[in-house]
Amino acid sequence: MGDAVNSIALAKSIRVDVLEMTHRVNASHVGTCLSMADILAVLYDGVARVDPARPDWSDRDRVILSKGHGAAALYSVLARTGFFDAARLDSFCTDGSLLMGHASHHVPGVDFSTGSLGHGLSLGCGTALAAQRQNSRRRSFVILSDGECDEGAVWEAALFAPHHRLHNLTAIIDYNGLQSFGRISDVLGLEPFAAKWRAFGWRVVEIDGHDHGAVRAALAGAPDDDGRPAVVIAKTVKGKGVSFMENALEWHYRAPDEVQLQRALAELGSQA
Ligand SMILES: Cc1ncc(C[n+]2csc(CCOP(=O)(O)OP(=O)(O)O)c2C)c(N)n1
Q1: Segment 48-67 mean pLDDT
Q2: Which of the listed residues 102, 122, 145 should we mutate to test ligand 1's pocket, taking the one with most ligand atoms within 8 A of CB?
Q3: Which residues of 42-73 are buried (b: 16+ CB within 10 A; e: fewer)?
Q4: CA 36 to CA 56: how far, in whole Å?
Q5: 150 to 146, 147, 186, 211: CA distances (angstroms)
Q6: 3-class state of residue 63 by DSSP
Q7: For residue 30, what are the CA distances in angstroms to 154, 181, 193, 215, 252?
Q8: Looking only at Cα atoms, what is the longest distance across the chain?
Q9: Ligand 1 centre distance from Cα of residue 67 (Å)
Q10: CA 179 to ligand 1: nearest atom
Q11: What are the pLDDT digits (tens) for 189-245?
Q12: Is 252 in the pocket of ligand 1 (CB under 6 A)?
């Protein structure tokens, strides 16, 4: 199990870390990290059965960040829950660092390298199926983005999981309504989104992805008796927690400069 840390404090640490990490090296993807900070914080605050002292423990739950461009947030939560020294976050996106800009399985606690969107749910199907074949209770969690659901492979996996009764698989969709260059509703609409997943045979839970209690209830719930996999559609705000980044398209690629960093940290109550 991870250290019992408070998910609210953990989410704040993730937000502060990703702001500093992206600022330091002028890197992209701060918006997506802020969007899912609460989801990651709850997941690693006692929901996912993982052990920071044994990142390769074979019976650990698997966590797959399919939206691998949010690597900074994943590295942060892993560091803050003890998988590696938080001082290493300073090396994010620098030459020779393990902490590459997209999620890398060379980092302790990262199960798969991701970043080419659309593949994580299939990986999760594989890890969930393997667990069942090995009679293991371990679960698989996959975090996807909404824009990623434009990829056909997501829907292939969506067909596969109910067919194989992968009740130990939980997909979490960070539904912030934005992708890199536009709104989901303008680029390629997903609605009626929940109905589509239901029609594919999934148990669907719709929540506010910033409400820690709701996230915890959705993720910690017992696997379905009738064998259905679960999808948690988490309504979120891209850039959540920093007023000038919230729901603002440019913060997909933009990195905060010094003034913006200080403003953002002040809003989070964490002056450097
Ligand atoms: C297969 C693939 N195509 C394109 C990209 C480039 N890319 C990176 S993030 C992104 C979309 C971002 O929007 P979304 O997936 O909704 O995630 P968000 O950042 O809003 O959480 C794209 C197209 C990629 N990483 N992988």
Answers
A1: 98
A2: 145
A3: bbbbbbbebebeebeeeebbbbbbbbbbbbbb
A4: 24
A5: 8, 6, 12, 26
A6: strand
A7: 24, 15, 25, 21, 6
A8: 53
A9: 7
A10: 13
A11: 999 999 999 999 999 999 999 999 999 999 997 666 689 999 999 999 999 999 999
A12: yes
What pLDDT was estimated at residue 2?
Answer: 39
Rounded distance between C-alpha atoms, residue 143 and residue 231, angstroms: 10
The amino acid sitting at 266 is: A
- The pLDDT of residue 221 is 74
Q: From the alpha carbon of 102, which atom of ligand 1 is closest?
A: 25
Q: In this predicted model, what pLDDT tens digit does every residue of 20-50 receive, in sequence order? A: 999 999 999 999 999 999 999 999 999 999 9
Q: Is the CB of 146 under 6 A from ligand 1?
A: yes
45, 119, 146, 267, 268 from 82: Cα distances, Å: 12, 27, 29, 26, 23
Question: 30-42 and 71-80 are packed helices; what angle lies between their axes, rounded to 10 degrees?
Answer: 40
Residue nearest to atom 22 of ligand 1 (CA): 180
- Which token pair is 171? 């997909």
Rg, the chain, Cα only = 17
